[in-house]
Amino acid sequence: xxxxxxxxQYECLDLEEGAPLALVKAQYLHLKTLYSSDSPLxxxxxFPLPESRRREILARIHRAYFTLREHHARRRQERNxxxxxxxxxxxxxxxxxxxxxxxxxxxxVLGLSLEEVAFACGIPVNHLRHIESxxxxxxxxxxxxxxxxxxxxxxxxxxxEAVIRDYMSRYRRxxx
Length: 176
Fold this sequence. Notes:
This protein is mainly alpha-helical. It folds into 2 domains: 3-79; 90-175, lambda repressor-like DNA-binding domains (434 Repressor (Amino-terminal Domain)). The chain contains 9 helices and no strands. Helix 5 (100-109) crosses helix 7. The longest helix has 39 residues, at 51-89. The model has no long low-confidence stretch (mean pLDDT 86).
């Protein structure tokens, strides 16, 4: 999609170019409500909007939102791919046992912030922070921890089974 086409989609939603997806979605929902058939706005102003025009506007709003949503998804995937390529090119330290500290050190060596890993893996930042600090009491249920460890390990090109095995043994010991 060309820059001009993208710009026109942002303009359709009355947004600044490059607005974050959350703002795009909020504006879409706002405009969708504003132009809905039961919206009192046009009736209050004494300015009835012809049904065909209202539908045309709603179709443009809908098209703009879904176009921008796809654009944001592509950009996110491109950033993830770039980050993964960077991780694969780095020399990852080797550990006999994986602990939260080992995961943090690996992330530091790779030059990644918690926020970058959270974004790339789809894991909340606070959960990553608790995993690395081994704040077991603050972690979600065990199944989620295993899933997060697998995503984290795969992203950093570590052996996911070894990371899960080592980390979960520490987790289980903390429960006793």
